[in-house]
Amino acid sequence: MNTFPAALLRVVVALGRDRRGLAAVEFAFIMPLMLVMFFGTVEFSSGVAVDRKVTLMARAASDLTSQATQVVDADLQNFFSASVGIMTPYDPSPTKVTLSEIYVDNSNIARIQWSKAATIASGATQATVTASSRSQGDIVTSIVPSALLVAGTYLIFSEVSYKYVPTIGYVMAKAGINLSDVAFTRPRQSVCVFYAPTSATMPTTCSTF
Predict the structure, then answer these.
(1) Distance separating alpha carbons of residues 69 and 65, to the nearest angstrom
(2) 57 and 83 in contact (C-beta within 8 Å)?
């Protein structure tokens, strides 16, 4: 009596009914997709949050400066240091901030009147005021919105850049993404905002360089 075909049939039927390990196989297929979705969501959400904070830093720096009639380096340091609080709980050290005053002449040409920058060291609670890459007299007409090019007026211009590096880098670039934003405000208490390193050298007339 040939029992091999019958035995083989029973084995095939039993194999078809065996569900052991099925969940593990399905998990092995789904796990990579779940990881991509999870880490992608975390990294993207953090990136959006940091980008929003970059916008807030640009607006805060410009707004605080425009409320003053004159500023010295100590004042600018306080304005720049607001970035530390805004960036919480993220590391503020990749932040680069620049504050400038712009004058629009009668030909609607915008020029830098003064400009200062700041960096924030890792773990620091205060910004460090540094020289700006922009110099007095630099023409910046191309970066000023046309609606703000009003002859004989001044603008406070803030620029913020931040390199966002994801914690894991599972989905986004591990090298990081450069985020930036700018803000313009007009002086609120005077025609222009005077600047000098110290109050002893403060100018008394608005520059039109």
Answers:
(1) 8
(2) yes
* pTM of the complete model: 0.80
CA distance 97 to 83: 9
Q: Is the pLDDT of residue 20 over 60?
A: yes
Reported as type and span, the H/E element at residue 208 is none
Angle (deg, nearest 10), helices 22-66 and 73-87: 160
The answer for 176, left when phi > 0, alpha when psi is -120 to 50, beta otherwise, is left
Cα–Cα distance, 61 to 44 (Å, whole number): 26
Give residue 33's pLDDT band: very low, low, confident or very high (50, 70, 90): confident
Whether residue 92 is preceded by a cis peptide bond, meaning omega within 30 degrees of 0, is no
Model confidence at 209, in pLDDT bands (50, 70, 90)? confident
Spatial neighbors of 30 by CB under 8 A, at least 6 apart, are: none
- H helices, E strands: number in the chain: 3, 7
Query: What is the rounded CA–CA span in Å between residue 194 and residue 51?
Result: 31
Radius of gyration of the chain (CA): 29
Query: For residue 200, what is the DSSP state?
Result: G
Q: Work out the pLDDT band at 4, boundaries 50, 70, 90.
A: low
CB atoms within 10 A of CB 3: 8
Report which residue type is found at 31.
M
